[in-house]
User: Fold this.
Amino acid sequence: MALRAGAFVESLGGELFGDVDRLIEGLAPLETAQRQHLSFLSHPKYRQQLEGSKAGCVIVGESMRELAQSRGDCIVTDNPYLYFARATQLWKKSLPRIAAALIHPSAVIDPQANIHPTARIGALSVVEAGAMIGADTVLKSRVTVSENCTIGERCLLHPGVVIGADGFGFAPNNGTWEKFEQLGNVRIGNDVEIGANTCIDRGAMQDTVIEDGVKLDNLIQIGHNVFVGAHTAMAGCAGVAGSAHIGAHCTVGGGAVVLGHLTLADGVNISAASVATRSILKPGHYTGMFPIDDNAAWEKNAASVKQLASLRERIRALEAQVKLLTPNTSSN
Assistant:
């Protein structure tokens, strides 16, 4: 498998400085790339890696063009990271395709499910009655789509994804729990990608909704009645509790949590390991975590944090005393 360096520019644009007929036999990061590889520099802070790289051709921005040319062939573009992503897509499309059945023989498809003729269903997957799978959508192995859930076009669900399990709803009853039947469904839009072993629960009384272009990493939990707006992305192990409303073009870092019934406006970015405990109605970058430290210092600081509420009250009391003792020097 090889592509000419010029083939990337012909398909993706950019400006090639060097040999258009150089054969690219693979894509690789700067630190491990060899003469047969195409690589990229996404940020100037990695320029030392560029200087020492053995890559045959490197994708760079205009500011790094001279440095890149001094070491060899390069492709100059406005956004090297995006360009490299598209280069991976071009490379994958060029790989030899292995003929395979659209629906694996081991998949279990209910006769009342609606599967588009171009959809692919992987080994040991289950699609239950009333479920709908859109055109060119791919379900990898062991994916479960429960009854009456809808998945749009050109979606990709990785192994172990579960769509439409019951949401976590139980009413206390004299020391026991009474199940709150989950009567809603899950509706997933177009061009959504869902990572391995991620679970999206069906709604209790209204549908759980994942809009177009959403990208979810592995091991994410989306609770019942959650709404996730278009083109929002969440990293691994994030959790969203029931009835939260997350806007469009948001990001949620790995291990972060959004509590139930909260609203995140469009364009909100939550840092990794943060916990959103209140609604955030203004776009921006938000962080809520205790900084890591050596354990002894962390224990001392954590003990101090526990005293903040009482310290606040003591400070208020002292301020009130000072105010009473301070002479009133204002003129009449």
